[in-house]
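sorry for the late reply, my laptop died twice this morning and i had to redo everyting from scratch. anyway the thing you sent over, i finally got around to it. pasting the sequence first so we're on the same page, its 290 residues, then the predicted structure underneath. double check i copied it right bc i was rushing
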Amino acid sequence: MFSKKNNTYYICVFFFSLFVLFLYGPTFTIILLSFQGPDGGLTFPLNGISTYWFEELWRGGSVVDIGSAFKRSIILGIIVMILTVVLSVAAGLAFRKKFWGSNVLFFITVASLIVPSIVLSLGIALQFRLIDDLTKWIGNSLDISWINDSFQTSLGMYSSGLGAQLTWTLPFGLLIMFAVFNRFDKSYEEAARDLGATPWKTFKEIVLPLIAPSIIGIALFGFTLSYDELARSSQVMGSGNTLPLELRGLTTTVTTPIIYALGTVTTFVSFTVIAISVGFYLFLKRKKGI
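ok and here's the structure:
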């Protein structure tokens, strides 16, 4: 007979398995349906097995330019990742010491996680439209020809779009760095300084290797959150859409498994980034001999 303790254990395993199935079941379903034949539909049962819809996707068999949107998302994700890492580490180092207004600055930064994403997106769009109006007014007032002839809007992927996505990724990076430095043993830095190391050499040789796994985590957050972001990007990307925005457009115009093929490709990219990050972490772990 099973003991009461064992019964509780198996019940927990059962419910956790159901949760995992609920979490990843839709993804597995989409991947499966994306490999249908040319006559396949959006629901079961499968109608043949092939890579037809992936071929259609990259041939441009849909109403949007998937290749360009994918490229834009990757480039923007890399930029957001780099800025998130640099700014989060810099902020983490700054917040190790109390300074005037530090608490207010922290709560303002974290508040962007609480504000509804669509409201934040509308606010950023409005802010940049005010900048547009001011720029055009300056151009008319001072008769600046390049503004009057060429300037249209400051809204764009690498201006307002980048800023909107950083309001989503930076708080996560900052919270991770807070957790890291709250547990950081300062005696290592003190020993390095006692041996004559400069502040930069102390950071490069002591602090950076110790916090490297956390930096990988921040980079992973930065890229994946940017790559998958939709609500905060919806009003601020200007003329160039990212892949999630194009995917949203496909849901209202495409009624073939090509949309499932796109979902499979984007899922593959996300898991590839995660695998690379985990592999890099294991490499650092083995190199440090931990």
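The radius of gyration is 24 Å.
thats about all i looked at so far, will dig more tmrw
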